[in-house]
Amino acid sequence: MRRKKLVISLTIIFVIAYVLFGVWIANDTKVVLEKAMSGAADYPEYMNQTTYQKINPIERGVGKENFTYDKELHRIGFVFPLHFFFVSKVYVTQQYENDSLGLKEPVNLKLKLKSGRWYATNAHIKP
């Protein structure tokens, strides 16, 4: 009976820790997507150049050169992270609509824990 309680307690602790890590990853994923879409100068703190080029609309060639990011028009759906220790694969849908650009796309990100935050190392956007 004691062993069963121990196993259940450890399982509950593991599940809580896994979910909390998932919340942390989801928050950092939203920051990564916002930085990439906005073209923020500090994006290298959150992702590598390749990832930035795959997400940013101007770099991808889907946005006009005069594209300006408006956070109010950017919708980020439910973030579903699968993680194992210091690496994560994230599935999320983002939507952005203004007068000159309309996107609704599923995004897959690969993240790794780097300097206390989740850093995007690769992105794949399904057209």
From TrEMBL:
Is this entry keyworded Transmembrane helix?
Answer: yes
Keywords (alphabetical) are: Membrane, Transmembrane, Transmembrane helix
Q: Transmembrane residues, as ranges?
A: 7-26
Q: In which organism is this protein found?
A: Paenibacillus glucanolyticus
Q: What is this protein called?
A: Uncharacterized protein
